[in-house]
From TrEMBL:
Domain Cytochrome b/b6 N-terminal region profile: 1-195
Residues in coiled coil: none
An example molecular function term from Gene Ontology annotations: quinol-cytochrome-c reductase activity
The protein's name in its UniProt record: Cytochrome b/b6 N-terminal region profile domain-containing protein
Pfam families, per database record: Cytochrome_B (PF00033)
GO biological process, one term: mitochondrial electron transport, ubiquinol to cytochrome c
Keywords annotated in UniProt: Membrane, Transmembrane, Transmembrane helix
SUPFAM superfamilies xrefs: Transmembrane di-heme cytochromes
Amino acid sequence: MTIRNQRFSLLKQPIYSTLNQHLIDYPTPSNLSYWWGFGSLAGICLVIQIVTGVFLAMHHTPHVDLAFNSVEHIMRDVEGGWLLRYMHANGASMFLIVVHLHIFHGLYHASYSSPREFVRCLGVVIFLLMIVTAFIGYVPPWGQMSFWGAIVITSLASAIPVVGDTIVTWLWGGFSVDNATLNRFLVSIIYSPLF
C-alpha cells in the first residue's frame, strides 16, 4: 500500500475525517488575514493565565506577613516556579496587548455597527472586567507596589458621593488595607475567569 493510499484510508475513519475537515481542509474566505486571529489569540492568552495562575495559587500563602515570601519561595525553591511567575506576569501584558489589537481590528472594520450593537456592548463590559481583573491580580504578590496600588486604586471609590466611604471599607474588609483585603482580592482573582 502506498503512502497516498494510506492517507486516504485514514481519512475514511470518523475521527481522522473530522480532524481533517476542521483543522486541515477547513474552508476559509480568501480575504482572511492575520488580524482575524486576535480573538482566538486572546482566548489562548486567557487559558495560559488561568493555568499558570492555578499553579501559582498552589504555592501562594494569602497572609500579609507571608505573601511576599511565598512569591520568593515560588521563584527560588519551586521547580520551574520562576518560569510560571514570569509567564503569568508577562502573559497578562500580552493578553492586554492582544485584546487591544482585537479592539482596534473591530473599530477599523466597523464591526460594532448594526446588527452587532449587543456584541459591542458585551465587548465593552468584558474589557472593563478584564481591566479590573488585571488590577486585582496586581495585589496578591504583596510587595510595596502592590500595597500602595491597592490603597490608591481602592481609595478612588471614596470620591463617590454618599456611599464612597462605605464602598472603600467594604473593599478593604476593614478600616485599612490589611489581611482581609489581600484575601478578598485573591479570592476575586481566582473566581474572576468564571465571569
